[in-house]
Specification:
By secondary structure, the protein is an all-alpha fold. The chain contains seven helices and no strands. It has helices spanning about 1-20, 20-30, 45-70, 75-80, 95-105, 105-115, 120-125. The longest helix is centred in the middle third of the chain and has 26 residues, at about 45-70. The chain is elongated, with a radius of gyration of 24 Å. The two termini are about 25 Å apart.
Protein backbone atom coordinates (compact mmCIF):
# COMPACT_ATOMS: atom_id res chain seq x y z
CA UNK A 1 0.00 0.00 0.00
CA UNK A 2 2.83 2.40 0.77
CA UNK A 3 4.68 1.92 -2.50
CA UNK A 4 1.73 2.75 -4.81
CA UNK A 5 0.93 5.89 -2.82
CA UNK A 6 4.58 6.93 -2.81
CA UNK A 7 4.90 6.35 -6.57
CA UNK A 8 1.63 8.18 -7.25
CA UNK A 9 2.95 11.16 -5.28
CA UNK A 10 6.16 11.22 -7.31
CA UNK A 11 4.16 10.94 -10.54
CA UNK A 12 1.93 13.85 -9.50
CA UNK A 13 4.95 15.98 -8.65
CA UNK A 14 6.62 15.10 -11.95
CA UNK A 15 3.43 16.12 -13.76
CA UNK A 16 3.75 19.61 -12.24
CA UNK A 17 7.11 19.96 -13.97
CA UNK A 18 5.43 19.40 -17.33
CA UNK A 19 2.16 21.22 -16.76
CA UNK A 20 1.50 23.91 -14.17
CA UNK A 21 -0.87 23.08 -11.33
CA UNK A 22 -4.00 25.02 -10.52
CA UNK A 23 -2.28 27.37 -8.06
CA UNK A 24 0.42 28.39 -10.51
CA UNK A 25 -2.19 28.85 -13.23
CA UNK A 26 -4.25 31.00 -10.85
CA UNK A 27 -1.17 33.09 -10.00
CA UNK A 28 -0.37 33.60 -13.68
CA UNK A 29 -4.02 34.53 -14.32
CA UNK A 30 -4.10 37.00 -11.45
CA UNK A 31 -0.87 38.62 -12.64
CA UNK A 32 -2.23 38.91 -16.18
CA UNK A 33 -5.58 40.44 -15.22
CA UNK A 34 -5.73 44.19 -14.59
CA UNK A 35 -8.61 43.57 -12.16
CA UNK A 36 -7.12 40.38 -10.65
CA UNK A 37 -6.49 39.73 -6.97
CA UNK A 38 -2.93 41.03 -7.32
CA UNK A 39 -3.80 44.08 -9.42
CA UNK A 40 -2.91 46.49 -6.61
CA UNK A 41 0.66 45.22 -6.61
CA UNK A 42 1.15 46.28 -10.22
CA UNK A 43 3.37 43.30 -11.04
CA UNK A 44 3.71 42.67 -14.73
CA UNK A 45 6.37 40.03 -15.32
CA UNK A 46 7.73 39.52 -18.79
CA UNK A 47 7.46 36.14 -20.46
CA UNK A 48 11.16 35.61 -19.73
CA UNK A 49 10.67 36.41 -16.05
CA UNK A 50 7.77 33.96 -15.89
CA UNK A 51 9.89 31.22 -17.51
CA UNK A 52 12.79 32.01 -15.18
CA UNK A 53 10.52 31.83 -12.14
CA UNK A 54 9.18 28.46 -13.25
CA UNK A 55 12.65 27.07 -13.85
CA UNK A 56 14.52 28.62 -10.91
CA UNK A 57 11.85 28.53 -8.20
CA UNK A 58 8.93 26.28 -9.11
CA UNK A 59 10.81 23.43 -10.80
CA UNK A 60 13.67 23.59 -8.29
CA UNK A 61 11.19 23.39 -5.40
CA UNK A 62 9.45 20.36 -6.88
CA UNK A 63 12.79 18.70 -7.57
CA UNK A 64 13.79 19.21 -3.94
CA UNK A 65 10.46 17.78 -2.75
CA UNK A 66 11.04 14.65 -4.82
CA UNK A 67 14.60 14.33 -3.50
CA UNK A 68 13.46 14.75 0.11
CA UNK A 69 10.77 12.11 -0.33
CA UNK A 70 13.33 9.69 -1.76
CA UNK A 71 15.70 10.49 1.12
CA UNK A 72 12.97 9.92 3.72
CA UNK A 73 11.96 6.54 2.28
CA UNK A 74 15.18 4.89 1.08
CA UNK A 75 13.98 1.42 2.05
CA UNK A 76 10.50 1.52 0.61
CA UNK A 77 10.55 -2.24 -0.07
CA UNK A 78 11.12 -2.93 3.63
CA UNK A 79 8.22 -0.68 4.63
CA UNK A 80 6.03 -2.33 2.02
CA UNK A 81 7.01 -5.79 3.31
CA UNK A 82 5.45 -5.01 6.70
CA UNK A 83 2.04 -5.35 5.03
CA UNK A 84 2.48 -9.08 5.59
CA UNK A 85 1.19 -8.41 9.11
CA UNK A 86 -2.05 -6.87 7.85
CA UNK A 87 -4.73 -9.57 8.09
CA UNK A 88 -6.71 -7.88 5.32
CA UNK A 89 -3.91 -8.83 2.93
CA UNK A 90 -4.18 -12.56 3.69
CA UNK A 91 -5.96 -14.82 1.19
CA UNK A 92 -9.65 -15.17 1.85
CA UNK A 93 -11.82 -18.26 1.81
CA UNK A 94 -11.64 -20.36 -1.30
CA UNK A 95 -10.85 -23.79 -2.70
CA UNK A 96 -7.07 -23.38 -2.38
CA UNK A 97 -7.05 -21.31 0.81
CA UNK A 98 -4.68 -23.58 2.72
CA UNK A 99 -2.14 -23.67 -0.13
CA UNK A 100 -2.44 -19.95 -0.63
CA UNK A 101 -1.93 -19.32 3.10
CA UNK A 102 1.21 -21.46 3.09
CA UNK A 103 2.67 -19.40 0.25
CA UNK A 104 1.24 -16.06 1.42
CA UNK A 105 3.84 -13.37 1.96
CA UNK A 106 6.95 -15.44 1.27
CA UNK A 107 8.51 -12.67 -0.81
CA UNK A 108 7.74 -10.03 1.82
CA UNK A 109 8.99 -12.30 4.57
CA UNK A 110 12.23 -12.71 2.62
CA UNK A 111 12.66 -8.93 2.44
CA UNK A 112 12.16 -8.60 6.20
CA UNK A 113 14.48 -11.51 6.99
CA UNK A 114 17.20 -10.01 4.80
CA UNK A 115 16.75 -6.64 6.48
CA UNK A 116 16.80 -7.96 10.04
CA UNK A 117 19.04 -11.03 9.55
CA UNK A 118 21.62 -9.93 12.13
CA UNK A 119 19.05 -9.83 14.94
CA UNK A 120 16.64 -12.69 14.14
CA UNK A 121 16.90 -16.44 13.86
CA UNK A 122 16.01 -16.93 10.19
CA UNK A 123 15.04 -20.61 10.40
CA UNK A 124 12.84 -20.06 13.43
CA UNK A 125 11.21 -17.05 11.85
CA UNK A 126 10.37 -18.91 8.62
CA UNK A 127 8.82 -21.75 10.64
CA UNK A 128 6.56 -19.36 12.50
Amino acid sequence: MIKPVFNATLTALDAHLVQLGQNMLALNGDLAQPDGVLADLQITPTDQQTRDFKRQIHDHYIGMLVQQLRNQFPQLDVLEAFSIFDPREAPGPGPNQQNMLLRYGQDKLGVLINQYAPIVNQAQLRNE
